[in-house]
Structures are given as structure tokens and as C-alpha cells.
Amino acid sequence: MISCRAPGKLFIAGEYAVVEPGHLAVLTAVDRYATATVADAAAGVAGEFGTAIGAPVGVHEASAAVTGAVAGVAVTLRSDLDGGVTLDCGRDGERLVPLTPDAVVPAAFAYVFAAASVIDRLLTERGIPSRPYEVDIVADLGDADGRKYGLGSSAAVTVATIAALGQFHELELTAMQRYRLAMLATIAVNPRASGGDVAVSTWGGWLAYGSPDRAAVAEIAAADGIDAAVHAPWPGLSVRPLPTPTGLALQVGWTGNPASTPALVAGLGTATRTPGDRATFNARSNDCVQRLLTAIEADDSAAVGSEIDRARELLLDLDQTSGLGIMTPRLHALCAAGIAVGAAAKPSGAGGGDCGIALVDRTRTAAIAELTGRWIAAGIQPLPLRTHPFEGETA
């Protein structure tokens, strides 16, 4: 039995611009996790966990009728997300397929199945037999009611699954190879995903990230295979660890309203902005992130705060001109509370709900306490998060 965990994330700056290849963002990993546990399983035997997805009787026959010859259960995926559910998978030739009546992957398993499929294709390309296995996914990236905080649960689940399956099949993957495999799985589900959350879930710590050209990467995988895509150059990709600022305390508040990052990012493409407007936003965001990187590496707390405020203003302008709904009333309140106590504050991620951040001089304990009180009064839940440290090499 092998278990691997991956941390959640917070965007510090660079949201929306980083969706475009080569554009930059700063993120940090936090100490909330998704854990994937892989165990050997006899073919055709599934464990017990939660509620099975698909009809309990005739599911294998129905799948076989849709996809051809499916030889029993090869893989069982189980998750404690969405109340605890199970998905059995079989093989149609060399292809992993869900054993559901319509042979469609349920949304609850989109990223786990994509990760398993990417590893499966890699094994086939390398001539490595795939053993039957079971995967259990657990996560603490939401509240007790199952509502997600917006800490990148999909990315953490994908990264943890890739890492665990890589160890199970003795693939000896480097951190960069794990990132690339997790990214290939991610863009199979969401082609617009920047991958910043995937990167920080892979490496941890504070990270400077430039997004790759996902369309080019997907074309390589489709034409030449997963192994080729893992080793080919990825245009636009850059990953660099950053020091954790020593003079600032990172405070995180949750609005209580989960948001859909893919929907908000997709909305950017149809918002009433001209290409020139978007290019201007991207350029200004990149300039802000570049200055932020300089400030972080110099451990200049005042300059870090100034760029966080600038990043917030850029998001406000984007919201006003595009109508995306980035800034909800509670995110406005979260930022206003931060400004009132002398902190730098902004939404973290795509907005529309989820989390916001405030960076406060860590010696100003009274200001931190006042910020917490203001957030609670505004219906914002402070989250006691710490940075998950950087691990591994980026080369």
C-alpha cells in the first residue's frame, strides 16, 4: 500500500493573466491536503467505500455493450469527496474505461480518472504491464459540510494520484515529470487550466510560475504519446521556488461561497473586452508580478504589500470592465477589512467567492487580531493555514 499527499494552494498574484501561455503568477502551498492511497487488487474485486456510481446490477454488461469487450474490473477508484463514492474501471483493449451504464466518467471522478488514464497510457507506451489496483482519495480541503474552500482540491487530488500511481508502478518519476503528467491529466478535463495550482501542489512552498502552451502540449501527447510529451520542451513553462517572506503574516479568509474557477476563466473569453484590453491587463499583471518577485526575493515587506495592493486593483479593474463577478460583497468586505488595519489584501484565485488573503506585518499582533474580528463580523471565516514547504528540484 502506497500513500502520497499533495498540498492545497493560494494564489498570491497573477490570476487570469497566467491563463495565457508564458504569463506569470505567484502562488503558495498550504497545509491542507489531498491524499491518494494505492493498493494491489485482484482483477474483478472491488473494495467497499461509500456509494457505488452506476447501476448495481448489469453495469459491466452495459459498459461492454457500449465499448466492446471489457474484461472485468481492473481499477477501482474511491473518494471521500461528494459524500463517499466508488467507480470501477475496466479495459477496452489498451484503454481504461469507466464501468458505468453509459461508459461516461462521473464528474466526481473526472480528475482521478484522468490521472489514472495518463499513467495507464504511459505504462502501455513503456511496455510495462498494469497491475489491478484500488485508489482511495481523502482530502481536508473543505469544511465539514463538504463545501470546498477554493484551495485547489482538483489539482491536489490529481498530483497526489499521479505520485501514488507512479510509486506503485515503480516509475521513479521526478517532480517535473509528476507535474507534467498531472498537467496532462488536468488539461484533458479542463484545457484552459493554467496549471499554477498543479505546480504548487507538486513542489510546495512559494512559487513563481509561468504557464505552458497547453494546446501545444496536448498536440504532442496526441501525436507522439504521453512519454514524448513528458520529455519534450513545453513552451512558456517556468517554475521557480521563492523564499517565504519573513516579515509578513499571511492571513486567509473564506467567504463561505464556493466558486467555479473553470466557469470564471471561461467567462473571460466571452466577456465584453477587446483583445487590446486583455493584452493590457496581462502586461500590467506581468509587470506587477515581476516587481513582486523582486520584493519577495529581497524580503522587502513594504514592497510586497504595495504589489499585493496593485494586484487587487488590477482585478478590480478587470471585474468592472468585464463583468465577470470576481469581487463578491464578501470579498469586497474582506479587502476593506484588510485595508482598515493596514494590511495588503486581495482575492486569491479567480474570485466569485472562495478565499481572499491579507498580508500583515507579523509583529502587529493587535492588527492581526482586529482583522480576524472584522472578518468574522462580516461573515468571513478565518482559516488557520500555514505554508507547506518547498520540496524537490524544478529541473
Could you walk me through the main structural features you see in this protein, from its secondary elements to its overall organization?
- This is phosphomevalonate kinase.
- One of its GO terms (molecular function) is kinase activity.
- Residues 121-205 form the GHMP kinase N-terminal domain.
- With 395 residues, this protein is an alpha+beta fold.
- The protein folds into 2 domains: 2-241, Ribosomal Protein S5, domain 2 (2-Layer Sandwich), CATH 3.30.230; 245-383, GHMP kinase, C-terminal domain (Alpha-Beta Plaits, 2-Layer Sandwich), CATH 3.30.70.890.
- 41% of the residues lie in helices and 22% in strands.
- It is built from 12 helices and 13 strands.
- The protein has helices at residues 59-67, 110-126, 153-168, 175-189, 196-203, 214-224, 226-231, 261-270, 275-298, 301-322, 329-340, 365-377; strands spanning 2-13, 24-40, 51-52, 75-79, 85-92, 95-98, 133-139, 206-210, 238-242, 248-254, 344-347, 355-361, 381-383.
- The strands form 2 sheets. Strands 1, 2, 3, 4, 5, 6, 7, 8 and 9 form a 9-stranded mixed sheet that branches. The chain has a 4-stranded antiparallel sheet with strand order 11-12-10-13.
- Helix 2 (110-126) packs parallel to helix 3 (153-168), helix 4 packs antiparallel against helix 5 and helix 9 (275-298) runs antiparallel to helix 10.
- The chain is globular and about 60 Å long.
- Residues 43-68 have low confidence and may be disordered.
